[in-house]
Specification:
The chain has 384 residues and is an alpha+beta fold. It is 39% helix and 23% strand.
Length: 384
């Protein structure tokens, strides 16, 4: 009997811990923490994958509940307005309708109780999944978004820069139609570049370095299954570097490790830096070939490398989750080696690809790393 009593007390203590944790998560997501509390909470979050996952899931849960409530309110409002029109023959003031925010009010009143139940029983993941399926038409058939740059964005950039195709000398062939774009990075001094397969929607490509110089490139090999592709610069203006300063990691990296990226998500040719951390050792729906990373990623980041603190490439950004801010996915760097092996088997020449192995910027600070790295990251445009 005493053992049962102790077990009950222990369960109550665990439940109290869950309640306090969820209250802290809600306070963090609502922006109600002080600056020092935010720093402390984010430190715990980075060090504890389970808590980080709870934050991501709870954020998704709150977001989906808000969407659900908005939809229900809109549906109810439409029905009430129609009935009013039908019965009276004229419009009734919408802001006088008594039902307007009942669903949201009920959610605000009971959300903590619901969240506790979700934590204990795994309700958050189940309910979120069901809501995503229910709202699937708004996801355009997919829950992840490829991060290649759309043709509309590229055209806008060309207009801003003064109709670059017509007024500025370009390496694009005459009458070429640019289809998509993204980012890529050098893996061999001879001009071999890695990017995502979905970046290359055309049959030709040019690459642009960090100082805006365009260079012709050929598409050497694409693997849609791994979403990786290999380009090679074939341009007399290309100045081959003596070496590549970073290395490409073959083994898995650690959960919670701080990471950063460099890519071209903007409409100009300015390279952009972003930082975050590795939040899961698998990708979307448990994909073992990818990582989940916590980092902001916009279209144009497809093909951008993910670096750890030692300036090792550990992954390649390719998608992000539509319904969860900052949840991004990156193909594991080990897949680069598999791509090179496959490309060399189909090669018509004996020109072997030598992947960078020496890391000469491992011990330098982040600013110096970035200063070296940006010269090896390229803006990619694919055309027909």
């Amino acid at each position: 009997m005493r053992n049962i009593t102790l077990e009950i007390k222990r369960n109550r203590m665990n439940q109290m811990d869950d309640i306090q944790l969820l209250e802290a998560i809600e306070k963090y997501l609502a922006g109600e923490m002080t600056a020092s509390e935010v720093v402390q909470f984010e430190s715990v979050r980075k060090a504890t994958p389970e808590i980080d996952q709870m934050v991501v899931e709870h954020s998704m849960f709150l977001h989906e509940m808000k969407l659900f409530a908005d939809r229900k309110n809109f549906s109810k409002l439409s029905e009430q307005t129609f009935n009013t029109l039908f019965e009276t023959g004229h419009w009734a003031p919408i802001d006088e309708q008594p039902f307007m925010f009942k669903v949201v009010q009920m959610w605000d009143k009971y959300k903590k109780v619901t969240a506790i139940a979700a934590s204990v029983g795994g309700f958050i993941a189940l309910f979120t999944s069901l809501l995503i399926v229910y709202l699937s038409p708004s996801l355009n058939g997919s829950q992840v978004l490829q991060l290649n740059k759309a043709i509309e964005s590229i055209k806008k950039n060309q207009q801003v820069q003064g109709h670059i195709l017509n007024e500025v000398k370009t390496k694009l062939p005459e009458n070429a139609k640019v289809l998509s774009g993204g980012s890529g990075f050098l893996i061999d001094t001879k001009g071999y570049i890695i990017t995502n397969a979905h970046v290359l929607k055309g049959n030709g490509a040019i690459v642009i370095n960090s100082i805006g110089q365009e260079l012709n490139a050929s598409i050497v090999y694409t693997d849609k299954a791994s979403d990786l592709a290999l380009l090679k610069i074939i341009d007399s203006d290309y100045k081959q570097p003596k070496l590549i300063p970073y290395s490409i990691r073959k083994n898995a990296t650690d959960l919670g490790e701080e990471i950063y990226t460099l890519g071209y998500p903007r409409n100009d040719n300015d390279i952009v830096y972003g930082k975050g951390y590795l939040s899961a050792t698998s990708g979307f729906e448990g994909d073992s070939n990818a990582y989940q990373i916590q980092i902001g990623a916009n279209p144009g980041y497809s093909g951008a490398p993910i670096f750890n603190n030692d300036a090792e490439i550990i992954g390649i950004i390719n998608t992000r989750q539509k319904q969860a801010e900052g949840v991004t996915f990156a193909i594991k760097s080990s897949k680069i080696y598999a791509l090179i092996d496959a490309a060399e088997k189909e090669a018509t020449s004996d020109n072997k690809i030598k992947i960078a192995k020496n890391n000469i910027i491992k011990q330098v600070d982040r600013k110096k790393q970035i200063s070296n790295l940006k010269n090896f990251i390229f803006n990619i445009r694919s055309y027909n």
